Amino acid sequence: MEDLIILYSGGADSRLLLELSLKMRKNPYCVLIDYEQKHIKELEYARKQLDLKNIKYQTVSLTNLKVDSGLTGNNKEMKYEGVHEMHVPARNMMFVSIAASISENKGINLIWYGANGEDFKDQFIDCIQPWIGKMNELLKVNSTIPIMLEAPLIGFSKDRILELSEYFGIKQDEVFSGYGE
């Protein structure tokens, strides 16, 4: 029986989360989100790895979002100074909401997502510890079961994540980043 939801994109962060969960003897259920992102190829990588590892998953589609950023829409400049060009407004809030719905339905108390230390440096405002804390407060009042959101990689740089990925035997051709890395 699954005991962890992973918001799984097919990129290096979520791939490492999957390996960490398996090493911790967790039984993850992965949620993939198709939000009409330009880098839809990432989800192909995700499905391939999950199928190879016999991990259960589902893909949820968000259509007609029509939000402009470097990842969606028309690549327009961000309207907010100091916000990364790849920021999709409220993306992780939507993703966590979807994961929470699935968690509650399946009776799973834990959600992981791949925020990391460099997300903070790059001004992704929904990838910082205070945001995670506020989301956990919201989950407490919005769920019939206790659900906790965690970002196990929040203190790690991209270099450390790549180093850990190598340690766990994750090859670069097994992941795809929509951020052009």
Structural class: alpha/beta
| Series of H and E elements | EHEHEHEHHEH
* Radius of gyration using CA atoms only: 16 Å
Q: CATH class, anyone?
A: Alpha Beta
Which residues form runs of ≥5 with pLDDT under 50?
none
N→C terminal distance: 35 Å
Beta-strand portion reads 5-15%
Tally of contiguous helical segments: 6
Mean pLDDT value:
88
Any idea what the CATH superfamily is called? HUPs
Q: What is the count of β-strands?
A: 5
Major sheet details: 5 strands, parallel
How would you write the strand order of the largest sheet? 3-2-1-4-5
Helix content bin: 25-40%
Overall outline: globular
What's the architecture, going by CATH?
Answer: 3-Layer(aba) Sandwich
- Total domain count: 1
CATH topology grouping: Rossmann fold
Describe this structure in words.
The protein has one domain: HUPs (Rossmann fold), CATH 3.40.50.620. It has a five-stranded parallel β-sheet, with helices on both faces. It contains six helices and five strands. It starts with a strand and ends in a 14-residue tail after the last helix. The mean pLDDT is 88. The protein is of the alpha/beta class. The chain is globular, with a radius of gyration of 16 Å.
Task: Summarize this entry quickly.
The protein has 181 residues and is of the alpha/beta class.
